[in-house]
Fold each of these.
Amino acid sequence: MFGRHGDLYLVNAGQLTRFDTLGDGERLTVLGSFDLKGAMPDAMVYDNQSDEITLLFAKSRRLLTISRDLTTMRDQALPAEVKMTGEVLMANTSLGRSVWVGGSQSPTFYELNPMTDGSGRWQT
């Protein structure tokens, strides 16, 4: 996944790594990494407004939001009303902080927004 600053984010073996793609030369420069403790996300998106990465872990029903520089994170539960069957799908837009989630065999796609009460929870 690419961020708006030319950074490339890759997950391999439970490790999220940030690379600089705008540097000189033919090799990518590693800018940092974040240990996901072996977990592999089912989907991920980059939020251009907040410069954050959101990863979805369907089995544990968790959303992990990490800062662009991979230094801070929020771990939140997926709201109970979100039901997904089939392949996990996730998207966002540049218009707001919404994250859209669903499943390839689900009849509903859900829009999630951060709660405004400061709790860090998502509302559907």
Amino acid sequence: MNNLGTVTLETERLILRRIKASDAEEAFNNWTSDPLVSRYVTWDTHENVDVTKELFTKWEEDYNKEHVYRWVVYVKELDTIIGTIDVVHQSVSQKTCEIGYCYGSKFWNKGYATEALKKVMEFLFNEVGFYLIEVRHLATNPASGRVMEKAGLIYETTLKNRFIDKVTHERTDLIIYSKIKDTN
């Protein structure tokens, strides 16, 4: 595998780049303070911009570590950042990884998540050398599953009752999609 770290990636509409602590205010305004977003992720809604800045400062320092792949997603036409996409777990020895992403709710249903996921998967497969990529979503967030399908991932399994929904407080399933590198 090639440890390239987080390099800038570009699509027709997006630039995926390293996160900077100075992105905190824009991120807070666009997604980290959005309860619709935090419902579907492991972290809670940020109460103020200082929480976001502290996290982004840590993430910026993480770029000094090997095998860190974490991007902020910038939409060219809107001149704003709308979310993040990153490798949340990986096994270098097995050449597998899990991708996580989140976007502000006002940017949902515009194809940005699919476009970014496709580009990151292409990079991780072709440039870094991962063999298998996995992505997960809560059953209460089927739109995320559609993003995964549009990006070419295949439904793999459902893990029953893995999380408690932050709104309903009821248990929900975790649905797993994956893709193996095309070797043709």
Amino acid sequence: MASGLGLRATHVSLSANSDESFATGAFTPQVDDIRQSTSVNLFDDVLSKYQNITDLLDCAEMAPDVVYADITGKEKPDAAISDCVEAYSDLKAKAETEKALLMEKESGHSSGISYTFVESKFAQAIENGWLVTLEEFTNVRDSAVAILINQLMDGYQELTLPTGKVIHRHPNTVVVFACNTDENQTGELQASTLSRLTTKYYIDFPNQAEMIRRVRNITGFDDEVALQQMASVVVTLRDYIDEHGFNGVCGVREFAGWAMQYQASLAFDADSTLREAAMETIVPSASTHREEMNEVIKDVIDTMLAA
């Protein structure tokens, strides 16, 4: 869309805990010399690339070696998602420890702590006429966020930052709301926000042929028989999750993860099965509860896949 309109593009990944600061920016404490810390500096760089751990995990599912390099600064072609999670946790712990030590060295009220205002990507997009995508907007619980967005989309067409600066919406600015309204545990767009959207598209779950095409492009896996069988399981499992109200998912990402796990297993054991790979990928994605996982195995996996 941005390419077609000739606009620069950016995105913001939202969560249930997101507040107005995603749009307005916020004041953050800055300790003297904190930028000299390697771990703190690297962790800040990671945060600038990934909005939160969910965003990082989504990217790690598709390209774990790239995410691992972003986190550690080191190359690891065979990196797995678990390596990314472990590296992220280690880096975060080191950064927090170094921050605490630096702050501990300061004495009295002249602690060397100052506050820096960090403007959000969203505010930059609004002011400069970019296309900005708000991902998972319906997950946000803070009602103040909807009020702020409504003022920006209609009427005032402006955004007030904590510094007092008022940003007026550039006439070229395009705001795209991307919401998984059909998934369990997700909310719906408020009527007041929905009425301010000039164009609305409902994008249905892709059919099996489209899912296979996407997974083939993502993973390079090209066993047509296996892909057809896996696609059937994914569609059935997705409906099963919805019908039973499980707090889980099964879509293209999970399909791709299953295909990659199966390929990796075959590289070590030619007798590996789709069922074994499913037990490590789509089954735990369907639910985190053992009883529900057992239901998935019994009603879907063992019914549709040979042991």
Amino acid sequence: MSVQSLTTTKFCQGISDISDSYMGFIIDQWGVLHDGEKPYEGVVDCLKELKNRHKYIIILSNSGKRADVNKERLKKIGIGPSLYDAIVTSGELTWQGIKNQDEGYFEGIGTKCYLISRGGDRSIVAESGIEVVDDIQKADFLLISGADSPGQTVEDYHPILKEAARRRLKAICANPDSLGVMGADSIMGPGTLARRYQDFGGVVYYIGKPHQPIFAHCIKMLQEKEIYPGQTIVVGDTMAHDMLGGHLAHIDTCLVRGGIHAPAFKSISTPAEVNKALNILIAQYHGVRPKYMVHRLSWGKALPDRKHKKRAVSK
């Protein structure tokens, strides 16, 4: 069903309500699986149930870090590799692009970059053949993969952004998110810096959701498993990236209301109030309506006691 043809969104108790309808699950990371510090309640059990039902799970993230870095971070907070099948990040696609420089935005972009990242992290260019320069005057392009928020504001980055724009450097944004989730707080994302660079007249190429190359990459992976867009759902917490990206890729979507848009649903409880808040969000984001909505990524009903069943069989 086309997202545009929907007139209502189905409010679900949990992912169990929709799991039988799909074989492929493209699931956002921050704000859906975890808050940057720990998994949300119910996430691990939900992923286990999906894997028990042989669903193919791709974690799709606008993280400016490479896939292996995200894999290790997930493992450290309790989401191990047995709970999903693949990780696709905008950072990974950016790394491949700047390394190969053989197509699209990356073709001939240059070998010297000025890097804006979180905490001075340079993993996105490691072993890519790209040299990071500290002098913007020596850079071939600008690479934005992170932001030191909340320690720095967007205004703190103005001098370097203005100078890069003056030199007409192309910018690659390896994480289009304007906001991120860190614990209970929202923090400035790299996408905010990229859009400010555009305000200064700079040209920015965005790698990640909602832009279609990253969704096309996921679709190709799923088709190799004989899973097609009509059998796939995007689960995420942002209208601007997850819901819009899924809509543009003609894939059904499920909004997790407890993530980045949680303030829009704060202090409301009745179905009518929830529907009103959702409609306000939809109006703000080009009329794109998610097919489903859940409070969080949880299974949503009593789970079977698998250990008990195993003991019973062994007797």
